[in-house]
Each structure stands twice: as structure tokens, then as C-alpha cells.
Specification:
Length: 145
């Protein structure tokens, strides 16, 4: 598992709490709704394990809901404890957002990143040239303006 995948996986708990704060849902539906957060490829078994753990810790409750067109499904809903934990996640992620925003702003303000790193050997991987400014994603170019 790559570092990026580990980071996304770590965010599944607060995202699931947010989705359940918006409305209750069954496991498969929640996996589908994760797609809006770039987690559409989340492992279903991992999501179900998280939901069971969240239920054990009192963050969510579940009940079986009979369906006319298929098997009964376990429907999850956020609890008051889950709502309080979601609020804590909001604060923590807000702090992280500030740090990431500062990092991105400062990165785009670097002068000739590749040239300086190449001359003094201080660049990534012993002097390898980072991507030049012309190839930055659009949001990076917009931030620089």
C-alpha cells in the first residue's frame, strides 16, 4: 500500500461519520458515497470493519432493515458520541488544512526550484530536478498568481 493510499484510508473514519451525519445508510451505499471523496476504490471489507468498530465504540448504531426487493440490510446511523467525534475531526482536519495550505502556498512561491536544487545538490533524490513550474496542476498555477 502506498503512502497516499494509507493517508486516504486514515480519513475513512471521519468521512464515514460525515456521510452518516448527512443521512443514515447501509454499508454498500456508504462505499458508493465514498467516491465523492476520492475513496471510490475503498475496500468494502475494510469499510465494514470500520463500521463495526465505530459501532463498538458508540459512534454509530445499526439496525436491520427489511427490503421488499432483496435481503435485509444493516443500516447505520450516527450517534451523539459520533457527532461529537465528528466535530473533533472537523477541528483537527481544519488545522491540517491550514498547514497544507501554507505548504502549497510556499511551494508555489519558490524561485527556480529545479535550478537551485541542481546546483547545490539539495534537491530530492540527491539533486534530481523537481517538476518545473510550467507543468504544475492548474490549482498550483492559480495559487501562484
Amino acid at each position: 500500500m502506498t503512502g497516499h493510499e494509507v493517508e486516504r484510508r486514515a480519513l475513512l473514519t471521519p468521512v464515514l461519520l460525515l456521510l452518516l451525519a448527512e443521512r443514515q445508510g447501509h454499508g454498500y451505499e456508504l462505499v458508493q458515497r465514498l467516491g465523492a471523496f476520492g475513496c471510490g476504490d475503498a475496500d468494502q471489507a475494510h469499510v465494514y470493519r470500520l463500521l463495526r468498530g465505530m459501532e463498538s465504540s458508540g459512534e454509530v448504531t445499526s439496525h436491520w432493515h427489511a427490503s421488499e426487493s432483496g435481503p435485509a440490510r444493516r443500516v447505520y446511523a450516527i450517534t451523539q458520541q459520533g457527532a461529537m467525534n465528528l466535530a473533533l475531526w472537523f477541528v483537527r482536519l481544519g488545522e491540517l488544512h491550514s498547514t497544507l495550505h501554507l505548504f502549497l502556498e510556499r511551494y508555489v512561491q519558490l524561485e527556480d526550484v529545479g535550478g537551485r536544487a541542481g546546483r547545490d545538490g539539495g534537491g530530492p533524490r540527491g539533486g534530481a530536478r523537481p517538476p518545473d513550474h510550467a507543468h504544475r496542476p492548474d490549482h498550483m498555477r492559480r495559487m501562484r498568481k
